[in-house]
Design brief:
homodimer, two-stranded antiparallel sheet, Rossmann fold, Dehydroquinate synthase-like, alpha domain, 14 helices
């Protein structure tokens, strides 16, 4: 029996897709529906056949290919899909299956939620990042220029199926990409989870660790689905992380989301020290772990203004103040912490010089 | 004291804006917020100054001008506004005021609901159509090609203020535009309302009639906000109406929404007769009223396929069936009524030849 986590009004199921309720769901709810499968180039090549050959219900499904990568998580691509859905006369009773990483689940969820004011979608995340983070919690959306996830809606899938066998299709940097969010879940909420992750390192990720990470995120989301309070904790590492990611999105040297978040975690941990929330020893310890798992990069002083400008656009901000999550110990944090320009510069020059 | 209707989690207030809670709302909730006012060319010219001069809270508001007309209720315009909002560093705590007709309230609500996964908005409808229909009920959205409101979300404003003095700025065809929806409210739910409207005709619309129309719509929406059942009744006249409107959107001869809905009401009333739901006498009576208020237009036989194709894309459809609302008497109707190609052709050739 696969393990199941109950989210707000849907389930997250862990284990082989073939042992899951996926087929039941298709036959019970979508027998007379059109089914659209959204894939990217990778999942089109490595994951789609598995679905099509195992589920006769999907024999007539329409497959739509999204271009690969964060730089394509944009309105133009959504628009093309909406036109295709209209052409294909997809109705409110039909279903979209998002088969892919975070870009596919974020953008596919958004596409489904806006089309005819919302049609059903199911997430089958195939990357570690999508399994532990992107596909969970109802945040759908796309980027607007360098502003990450600037456009979107809160909208839940009908179900999520997490089958770790898809991870075998991934290159190493994709595992790293999800590992940063798992570390974050430990740092903000569960010291035990953090220690398990650190002791195993990212090459040994297993379904139990994924389950634990999703449980932590789900608990936070259930307590505060629309991010009024508690859910803000999940943004730890993301005030700096999103700005760094957005900055590199405009350059030749692209940075994976998880890599940027790992750097963001480091910056915001140092900030926590700077603002007297933790000892330098905790920062040094976390620095050692992050450094062993991720390449640290350096940001030139001349680029600080661009980074700060991106941080000012962060969705968490209020009244022009830049707000941030700070650690108070490993496994605990505080949100809505105001930070200023001087602190940001001090952090960047200390951590990413 | 202005009359107030309680909607799901917001209020609809009727009467002079200066006597309303508008100012309270601004000072209590948005004192430190950026305020954006979305207008179109007409409300920019005729309505904006009234707001700016009467409310010091709006002195620093940013005014954004949307291009006029249904053909501009499109993603491209939204995209420009989102870029401007980002540039202006609008945050989740800020406010958008939609000052305009149905295009402004539909599109402005959509823009606000998608930006950073949703910021607050207030509707101040200035056209009769927006007062009695578009701004009420939480449907926001834009068109996709000829498909009306194909993209959107259900999302409620923080408040709606209906001040009939704005109607004085409108040309006659704009009053007609809203009158069709008021007639519809009577036909589907309240014979008394229909009779009052018919006895007064559209030149004598007053705030009490607007209030009654909004009450009828609000009751239906409260019973079924996401249009699973009862709310479908509000689509009476819109299966044919939207298709006719969409068809003319692609031609030189543009048709106002309300005009298209009036023609749709006529078509669907005839269909109700065809399918044995009402006597021909009721159709003849309604025909007489509609003909006295709206110009009937004719559609060429060669264009029937285009109309039917648009009807197949209607959001109300299920499993490739075209569904429709049919009258059973004046003040009563049935939804989810299946209709076929032959019936559509018979109706078009009888009613709009």
């Amino acid at each position: 029996m696969n393990k199941i986590i109950k989210a707000k009004d849907y389930s997250i199921e862990f284990g082989p897709l073939l042992d899951s309720n996926f087929q039941n769901l298709l036959t019970q709810n979508y027998l007379n529906s059109k089914i659209i499968i959204l894939v990217d180039e990778n999942t089109h090549e490595y994951c789609l056949e598995y679905l099509i050959t195992n589920y006769p219900e999907l024999a007539d499904a329409e497959v739509m290919l999204l271009p690969e990568g964060e730089e394509n998580k944009v309105m133009e691509v959504c628009f093309q899909v909406w036109e295709a859905l209209s052409e294909y006369k997809v109705s409110r009773k039909d279903l979209i299956i998002n088969l892919g990483g975070g870009v596919v689940t974020d953008m596919g969820g958004f596409i489904a939620s806006i089309y005819k004011r919302g049609i059903d979608f199911i997430n089958i995340p195939t990357s570690l990042l999508a399994m532990v983070d992107a596909s969970i919690g109802g945040k759908t959306g796309i980027d607007l220029g360098s502003y990450k996830n600037q456009l979107g809606v809160f909208s839940n899938p009908k179900a999520i199926f997490i089958d770790e066998s898809f991870l075998q299709t991934l290159p190493k940097e994709e595992i790293q990409n999800g590992f940063a969010e798992m570390l974050k879940h430990g740092l903000i909420k569960d010291k035990n989870h953090w220690e398990k992750l650190v002791s195993l390192s990212k090459d040994k990720i297993n379904l139990d660790l994924i389950y634990d990470s999703v449980s932590l995120k789900n608990e936070i989301v259930l307590a505060d689905p629309n991010e009024k309070n508690e859910r803000k904790k999940l943004n730890f590492g993301h005030t700096f992380g999103h700005a760094i990611e957005g900055f590199f999105l405009e350059t030749e040297q692209q940075l994976k989301h998880g890599h940027a978040v790992a750097l963001g975690i480091l910056c915001e941990t140092y900030l926590s020290y700077l603002k007297g929330k933790i000892d330098i020893a905790i920062y040094n310890y976390i620095h050692e772990i992050i450094e062993s798992e991720f390449n640290l990069i350096s940001i030139q002083e001349g680029d600080y203004d661009a980074i700060i400008s991106l941080m000012q656009q962060d969705k968490k901000n209020q009244e022009n103040k830049i707000l941030c999550v700070l650690l108070t110990e490993i496994g605990k944090c505080e949100f809505d912490q105001e930070i200023n320009r001087e602190e940001i510069i001090e952090v960047l020059s200390e951590v990413l010089s």
